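Predict the holo structure. Ligand: heme C.
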Amino acid sequence: MQPNLKKTGWLMCLALAIPLGAAANPILDGYRTAAKQENPAFKDFSAAAGQKFYSAKIGTLACASCHTDSPMAAGKHASTNKEILPLAPTANPKRFTDAANVEKWFKRNCNDVLKRACTAQEKGDFMSYVLSVK
Ligand code: HEC
């Protein structure tokens, strides 16, 4: 292989590898597709909006009520006191790896807190925040 071609090959590998780095999450990509369908003007998710959503109390409950003020910390169920492992993949690498499980808990917890399902925008903002915490 000519040296120039070799170099181009490496650059192409790098270009492909970077978007697949730590921040990429196929579940988040799924919510991005859904958010575009929900709202044609959708641009992107916001970790800042996700952080607000995480701690916003609606009635008596917030996501933080069970998941604590930090997604890095282990929590406790607000009514059963059962331990809940940290939500942030930095602290708990199993998080946000199983789409069906993620959907199941978004469904249950959004209903508990908001009394309705979360929108794809809310789920994506929430995930962007939780995935960004280090
Ligand atoms: C009443 C307690 C409670 C509240 C409030 C709560 N959760 Fe949870 N959440 C749980 C429990 C219990 C689990 C499942 C046990 C576990 O995974 O550790 C869980 C798991 C999850 C998961 C699964 C993540 C994964 O990959 O395993 C997501 C996503 C989640 N919650 C999102 C939310 C969001 C968003 C809110 C706020 C709208 C919220 N939760 C509020 C108790 C709660």
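The radius of gyration is 18 Å. Residues 61, 63, 65-67, 77-78, 84-85, 95-96, 101-102, 105-106, 109-110, 112-113, 126 surround heme C (CB under 6 Å).
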